[in-house]
Amino acid sequence: RKMFIVPISFVCDHIETLYELDIQLKELVGEEKGSRIRRMPMFNDDPSFGRILAELIRAKVGENAGK
User: Fold this and answer.
1) Model's pTM, two decimal places?
2) What is the CA 54 to chain-centroid distance, rounded?
């Protein structure tokens, strides 16, 4: 079997989480099983994530400009 981990509480990578999932978990289950574990890439690794955040901020600032 294979395992795909999705740390849903984060939108960017946190060094503690990456260490726990990518290193400690694989050490805990052993090399053979550890090689079958994959983690979802974090959103901040995608260039479009920054663009989307910037668009949301600009839209919100525009909404509040007249207030």
Assistant:
1) 0.56
2) 18
